[in-house]
Amino acid sequence: MWRLNRLRGVEHTVDAQPLRDHVAELMDAGMSFKAIALTAGWSSRNALADVMTRKQVMHKTMARVLAVRIDSDNRRDAYVDATGSARRIRALAVNGWPSRNLAKQLGHKHPATIQDIASGKTPTIRLRTKDAIRGLYEDLWDQAGPSVRAASIAKAKGWLPPLAWDDESIDDPDYQPEDVRRKSLPRNVTGVTLEDIEEARDQGYVSAQQIAWRLGVSQSLVAQILSRADRAAS
Question: For 177, how many CA atoms within 13 A lie in the half-sphere containing its CB?
């Protein structure tokens, strides 16, 4: 059929230069070569790289590349590293947000999906999942969750709260944050003063839960010291 169409003057291929020009325009606008390939429907950049070397390309190949626009985002189906997402889920757990609650808010029927990301069992996730977790984290990072038990389990695992991270480092697998917590004190020794609490506040730790984590004491102790200070001031 292909040869018959050639004899009839029907061409299956076209000059590839417009394809290369379009890819160049997209890259100039800020879209990566890999993103262009994924958005055009290839599973990796290699297929597009091969097409770019040809003088002629199939009509359907030309059409799929020319259909890519700078605002296209089929990259959401691509797989990305899950490190930052795991850290965000762990940080929310420290604040008392259990995986079941987070899964429900993210639209997942089973909390095991979120649990596997947090535990590191799922090293890569869809980009759309990463974006959803990031969005939820931005909404909840400074809010106490409903589960004291989830917070206790997360702390026992050594997971770090949101204040241990910043936006520039949380997605970097090689970054290891400094644990700024004071080592837990013996049960019969508080060693914490109102000045310690004020210093923690100056460092950005606002809620009683955050201050308690920073000082290595219980949240109830922080609340007790603040209550005494309020009574003394009145």
Answer: 21
